[in-house]
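Troubleshooting log. The previous structure file for this entry was overwritten by mistake, so regenerating from the original sequence record. Sequence copied from the archived sheet and checked twice against the printout by T.R.
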Amino acid sequence: MKQKVISYQVADSIDVKSMVADFKGELCYSDPTELFYRTGEEQYVYIFNYGSVCFLNYDAEKIAFSLEFIRPYCRKMFAENLTDEFNVETDAKEVRVGFNNIELPTSANINVLRLVMLNVSQSVALDYYEQQTNKLLEDTNEHTQDLETKGNLRLSGKKLRKYIGRTLLLKNRIADNIYAFDSPPETWENESLNKIDLELKRTFDLQVRVRTIHEGLNIIKDNLELFQGLMQHRKSTMLEWIVIILILVEVINLIIEKIL
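Regenerated output below.
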């Protein structure tokens, strides 16, 4: 039997604590950061506080209805959602993970399906964080090129502070959620689940992508520290000139008084 997993990154975050009392379905798993529901025969939905929603065996109409229901619990919902899809086949003889699909025996339990949905959701969340990091890197490179070609920064103090704020906000958000990209506790106690989890993580390059995001943010941080140093030097140089001009004015006043 062929099934489809599709995950959406719909917002900066979702208030799962408030939503748990209102969502209709059989709650199969929950913790403070995620909710996993069975909503029908072989139908599941997985909701994460970092803004991802994942569906198994949902048609487009039911997905649209569910996303509209979730909207009031979202913070900064996106106009366009990032998506990632993965196929599940449940009539295989043994577990086999491919480029865009996983083959499972008919006897595969709900924990395996949840693990697949979890990894697809982590993948689409990383797509979002990669986009944000790349945009900050592009902005940083633009200012670095200004230094190379013109020898100065076009950033004002206020713009630099806002830019630093954007970078720190993204870095903090990733740091807050990065634990969510670790393997779930069930895989520590079950060898077959752990093997599937490792294969899925390799397929989606999750660990490599997390490391790449961190490296990008560290490059941005190093550049921002350089920009801050240059800005402070510019301010101190300006203050020095102001002091020199004030002293010069005072000396001229004294000379004029002596002459008169």
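Strands lie at 2-14, 26-31, 34-40, 43-48, 52-56, 74-89, 96-97, 101-103. Archived copy saved in two places this time.
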